[in-house]
């Protein structure tokens, strides 16, 4: 199965990605804009996995996301991990 995780360079998203890669045979595409909370160093242990991919993109950029989705052949609905502070 192929899974897209948005915000995967954040604290929760990176934990989810590490769990998926470590405990399943699924492939993961991490889409993250890499703003203040994005930290790719938290994904060092999975970055060399053939089942892990990263694309730096803003999920609000519709053309970019459409291109990503068409090339990755999504098989599971998007898991979006985001915390809104009010």
TrEMBL record:
Its EC number is 4.2.1.46. Residues 3-73 form the NAD-dependent epimerase/dehydratase domain. The keyword Signal does not apply. Gene3D superfamilies: NAD(P)-binding Rossmann-like Domain. The keyword Lyase applies. GO terms for molecular function: dTDP-glucose 4,6-dehydratase activity. It holds the Pfam family Epimerase. Keywords: Lyase. Belongs to the NAD(P)-dependent epimerase/dehydratase family. This is dTDP-glucose 4,6-dehydratase. It comes from Sedimentisphaera cyanobacteriorum. The lineage of its organism: Bacteria, Pseudomonadati, Planctomycetota, Phycisphaerae, Sedimentisphaerales.
């Amino acid at each position: 199965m192929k899974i897209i995780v948005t915000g995967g360079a954040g604290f929760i998203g990176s934990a989810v990605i590490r769990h998926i890669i470590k405990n399943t045979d699924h492939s993961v595409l991490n889409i993250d804009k890499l703003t203040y909370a994005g930290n790719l160093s938290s994904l060092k242990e999975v970055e060399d996995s053939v089942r892990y991919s990263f694309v730096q993109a803003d999920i609000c950029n519709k053309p970019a996301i459409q291109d990503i989705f068409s090339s990755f052949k999504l098989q599971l609905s998007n898991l979006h991990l985001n915390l809104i502070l009010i």
